[in-house]
Amino acid sequence: LLGSLQATRALMVAAILLGLVAVFVAVTGMKCMKCMEDDQVKKMRMAVFGGVIFIIAGLAALVATSWYGNRVARAFYDPFTPVNTRFEFGSALFIGWAAASLAMLGGAFLCCSCPRRETSYPPSRGYPKNAPSTGKDYV
Fold first, then answer.
1. Most CB atoms closer than 10 Å: which of 44, 84, 87, 103?
2. Where in the cell is it found (predicted)?
């Protein structure tokens, strides 16, 4: 096989494996899971880390799909390619682009759930509570 075809296959396999790792990392960081429930900051950081891995997996899938799509387009418009051996964009390319877009979008949503930093405002103080009256204050 051509080197570019082997590279696109390797990128797609890497994207699939990174996607699986991202699922496990992001599930660990979800609020509904019992794992790491004692430290909410670490739990949220795990969710953000899973989102970053999703974005990387989506980029790998996008590069592989676009690279192969470019190869198909160049071969289609090459005048020296016989008409009966020309490829066209198939459904697999569109599914690859959609999957890469959804993986990056999901990763971005997970990254938006990062823990809030402490604000520079002073902490709000409640009103002082009055002691219950015993009735002897007016005597």
1. 103
2. Cell junction, Tight junction; Cell membrane
